């Protein structure tokens, strides 16, 4: 037995949802989490079977369904003689959401105290609809001095009392990330941990990428330890010279107590000497340095090699 094809109609409950105009009249876009009621317009005594993405939905046999999941919805009508109608038109429910991602990175080059460097902060909308009133906040730690905002590709950024505020009135989805460049300098040697945060008006489906942490080492003066213990415990196994990264050229030479050279770095020293093949005892070093400005200097001292500590 043939029965009339069941037809979808969206119930216009404007106090619940606002349906945006679409090129495809069977596409419904609503804010994330909004229930979407769909109903069959029918004057017969039928039962129904609803489908999402081509699969039947269990226990959905009435002429009305409230949708809470994105998908492509259809329905069949079934009369008392167990005859089925054709499948209805497809109504695609799309839940609009935003997925803001912030990434903060400092320059990879080595810097010392009072040496300027740049942070790049990018913000991208990975969702499926535009987000509004996007704000990125970045509180600079006390060991940083703010020098200026170099550039911003969109919106407006300002600094006040150590807080960087970047306002983006409209951040569209599907476009390259917006970028902000900030120039700072470290006050003292040490590790600087900096966190950027982003938020917007729309529901965000992934809060894990709404913060980004950058760790930057501000390198201090040259410091050569007096003892190494290459016993494989991960502590003092090699001669690590703090601050050597700041020098564009350096050469390390190590001598035994009789003045014989037992090690010379090939090119810049890589913090890798562990006294391999040498006996315990006291050794002497000469470290020659050339600064970024081209100034030559050198330092000398002694190192004790211990294997059983």
Outline the structure in words.
The protein has about 300 residues and is mostly beta strands. The chain has no helices and 22 strands. A hairpin with a 2-residue loop joins strand 4 and strand 5.
Radius of gyration: 33 Å
The level of helicity is under 10%
Largest sheet entry: 5 strands, mixed
* Average pLDDT over all residues: 87
The outline comes out as elongated
Map the helices and strands.
Elements: E1 8-10, E2 27-31, E3 36-40, E4 47-52, E5 55-56, E6 64-67, E7 71-78, E8 91-96, E9 100-106, E10 116-125, E11 131-139, E12 144-152, E13 156-160, E14 163-171, E15 178-186, E16 190-199, E17 211-218, E18 227-228, E19 249-255, E20 261-264, E21 281-290, E22 296-305
Parallel strand pairs: 2-8, 18-22
Antiparallel strand pairs: 1-3, 3-6, 4-5, 4-7, 7-8, 9-10, 10-15, 11-14, 11-16, 12-15, 13-14, 16-17, 19-20, 19-21, 21-22
List keywords for this structure.
single chain; 309 residues; mainly beta; 5-stranded mixed sheet; 5-stranded antiparallel sheet; 48% strand; disordered N terminus
Short description:
It contains no helices and 22 strands.
């Amino acid at each position: 037995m043939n029965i009339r094809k069941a037809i979808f109609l969206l119930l216009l409950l404007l106090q619940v949802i606002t349906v945006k105009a679409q090129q495809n009249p069977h596409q419904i876009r609503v804010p994330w989490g909004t229930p979407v009621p769909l109903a069959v317009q029918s004057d017969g005594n039928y039962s129904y079977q609803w489908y999402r993405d081509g699969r039947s939905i269990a226990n959905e046999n009435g002429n009305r369904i409230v949708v809470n999941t994105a998908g492509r919805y259809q329905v069949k009508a079934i009369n008392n003689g167990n005859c089925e109608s054709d499948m209805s038109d497809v109504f695609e429910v799309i839940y609009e959401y935003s997925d803001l991602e912030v990434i903060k990175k400092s320059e990879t080059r080595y810097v010392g105290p009072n040496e300027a460097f740049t942070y790049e902060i990018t913000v991208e909308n990975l969702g499926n609809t535009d987000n509004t009133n996007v704000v990125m906040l970045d509180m600079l730690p006390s060991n940083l001095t703010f020098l200026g905002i170099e550039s911003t590709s969109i919106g407006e950024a300002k600094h006040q009392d150590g807080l960087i505020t970047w306002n983006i009135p409209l951040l569209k989805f599907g476009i390259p990330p917006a970028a902000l460049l900030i120039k700072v300098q470290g006050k003292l040697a040490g590790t600087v941990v900096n966190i950027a945060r982003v938020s917007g008006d729309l529901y965000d489906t992934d809060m894990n990428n709404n913060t980004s942490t950058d760790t930057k080492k501000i390198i201090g003066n040259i410091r050569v330890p007096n003892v190494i213990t290459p016993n494989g415990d991960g502590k003092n196994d090699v001669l690590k010279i703090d601050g050597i990264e700041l020098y564009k050229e350096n050469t390390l030479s190590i001598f035994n107590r009789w003045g014989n050279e037992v090690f010379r770095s090939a090119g810049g020293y890589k913090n890798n000497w562990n006294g391999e093949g040498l006996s315990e005892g006291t050794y002497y070093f000469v470290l020659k340095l050339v600064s970024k400005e081209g100034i030559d200097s050198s330092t000398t001292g002694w190192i004790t090699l211990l294997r059983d500590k």
